[in-house]
Amino acid sequence: MSLSAPTPDRGQIDALRKKLAEGNALLRQTYETDKRSARLLQGRSRLVDGVLGELWQLCALPPEVTLVAVGGYGRGELYPYSDVDILVLMPTDEPDEVLRGKVERYIGFLWDLGLDIGHSVRTVDECMIESAQDVTVMTTMLESRRLTGSLPLYREFLRRIYIEFNPESFFHAKCAEQEQRYNRFNQTPYALEPNCKESPGGLRDLQVIIWISLAAGLGTRWSNLAKQGLITREEMRDLNAVERFMQQVRIRLHYIAGRREDRVIFDVQEALARAFGLEATKAKRASEVMMQRYYRAAKKITQLNTLILQNIGARYAQISHTESRPIDEHFQITGELLDIVDDQVFERHPPAMLESYLLMQKHHELKGMSARTLRALWHGRKLINAAFRRDPVNRANFVSIFQQPRGQTHELRRMNQYETLGAYIPAFGRIVGQMQHDLFHVYTVDQHILQVVRNVRRFALEEHGHEYPLMTRLMAEFQRPWVLYLAALFHDIAKGRGGDHSKLGMADARRFCREHGFVKEDVELVVWLVEQHLGMSQVAQKKDLADPDVIRNFAAMAGTERRLTALYLLTHADIRGTSPKVWNGWKGKLLEDLFMASRQLLRGDTPQQALGLDERREQVRERLRFYGLVPDVENALWADLDTVYFLRHDIEEIAWHTRMLYHCAHTERPIVKARPSPIEKGLQVMVYTPDQKDLFVRLCAYFSRMGYTILDAKIHTTNRGYALDSFVVFDPGHDSDYRDVISLIEHELADKLANQTAIDAPTSGRVSRQLKHFPITPAVSLQPDERGQRFILSIVAADRPGLLFTVARTLAEHGINLHTAKIATLGERAEDTFLVSSPSLENSGKTVQLESDLMERLRV
User: Fold this and answer.
1) What is the tens place of the pLDDT at every residue in 79-101?
2) 3-state class (DSSP) for residue 717
3) In whole angstroms, what is the distance from residue 420 CA to residue 546 CA?
């Protein structure tokens, strides 16, 4: 063998590249005509087989080396832009320089052809070592195909695999791997932008079944599983249908994106719907019709995945030979699973369907339901009709599911998965798989509701007390907490009907509670919570919590401490159940402040006592003594601060301001201090300076130029005319150590303010891709406050960098004085509220001009 061995020339590489391109174009043209996904996937695999084989010959690879297709390519399926995974089997641990060079050139030429190559070069021994350490490697090798090269070496490779392979260990490893994958996607197939390959209910769930079936010697086709009795003929047809659908989705995604793309993101949903020939209806966009079809397929896949893996697992555990232990006349325990005594149990006794979920809650030793029980539940959903729902036994069983000391979340999810929940509450069935294009919910309506129920339930569990100490304490003291689980179940049940879903949902909740025999107090509580479930977050995030009237009015709306506590628990759970991006520590603190003040008011305190002004001052003094400040050192500064300041800032914040400013309350030089936020990631920045023209605008511009988003802003002017402004800012693009920029901000910003240096306006930020497809029409509202002294400016707009600067600059141009800013960001949606004043606002013409200018500048 010599270094001068023949290699392909440029003309030969170009010819192969042309062959690939023409072959791919023909496959796509044929697919657009016949829509046969299997034909496309297998055709592309054969096309690549031929090109790889020709190149192998052109590179003159020696006959003792073997080229093996692995993974999806080994299975004979190649999507339009999928990776081509290959294994080069080497005959010896230490190939000579010539052989190593030939293999490297071969791989390089594959990249030149435009193929995305995933490759490994190993000996058989190395393959065995890698597969023993990584179940993913073993999986790819199970689906291998010899393309060319040494047949004896490939046979030795297969022999070693099956000698060293343990099917039962592989089964458990793949189940554990699937569980980890599910956790990455929050255990739901119903995310608004699912991954059709990796998300629960995606193609990977089907592949897991095939891998495990192959390892167990049960075959690689759905018909093989049917012959083995693992699935019914109907389920085999369902599997074929959902597999074809998901293949079509992934193929279309690749063609639409022009690259490998497995996420069904907002950008492509409309195009995907067109590719499937779907059109909009009166109530839904074409993309929503498409996604509901997707969710139905994903749900079917997760159901069948559970059934099949459980049946295969039973074979390994030899559950069929395990003695069953009877529970009652309908159920037994077989191998730690709840099992029906025969396949006709639910037909003979329909109430047993709800009883099955109750038994799962009552028997801690059960690890799940048997496959035939789940299958019977799925088919039995058709037995849940109006007569079933009227049966007192069924009504009592359904409510009892919520009253059990454990298992509510698991069983409600199982009930939704097998459509028992939607059959029993038809209103819930209508919102299953319904999308929410509000840009802050990341789940479908039904999954959001179940997330909220889960969150409320966690407040009642001691093991989560460290996460939510106040919530846990409140829940422990709350009588009949199961009523809150039902309120959570109904709070968004009327979404998508048109109109106010809070009002519409009240009727559903009232009817349910009365039919199920709730006492009057609980009926009224559930109905009230459904009606008011958005109220507390709106007050906390949009109104001035330092205003006694705000607290008084909110407490009056709640009426009783039980209602207040229930609304606080539900609101906390609801916000946390929308999206990880929506919740933050500042929202939590606003809700807690509103709850605490309102509770004190309901317990008989005056508004001033409820807001804790005197107590707050004393607590601040204690903090100052702790830091070593002598008594009364704070008096000079505090004499310039009015009551509103002490109400609007918390104890820790007042103590920090005082420590920084007590010795320089009358300084002429601006003081800027920053520290890591004690509540939320980011920085807390304090600015103290003799008031300047357009100060707030300049500060917003500075933070925007730094790339920071403003989470919170408090504007205050002292009795001596000093501005004492506080901001909480963070960098949305990085989780950097904010301590590194504290000195920079303190010195740079103070210098700019001292010298009245102009701060360049920030550039307009880019909008997110979600907003491009689901734009938010800005809304501006300017109304006098309850006292008629100032005005409340409410703005709804697409969030983007520099948004607060845009608003502040517009207000300044119109001569509007800004007193407070309440920043509320809900995903991609900003809902900000400002307290403003100006003589010009009494003039309707100037007010209209202000609103028009704001609307124009808020459009993206």
Assistant:
1) 999 999 999 999 876 777 888 88
2) strand
3) 47
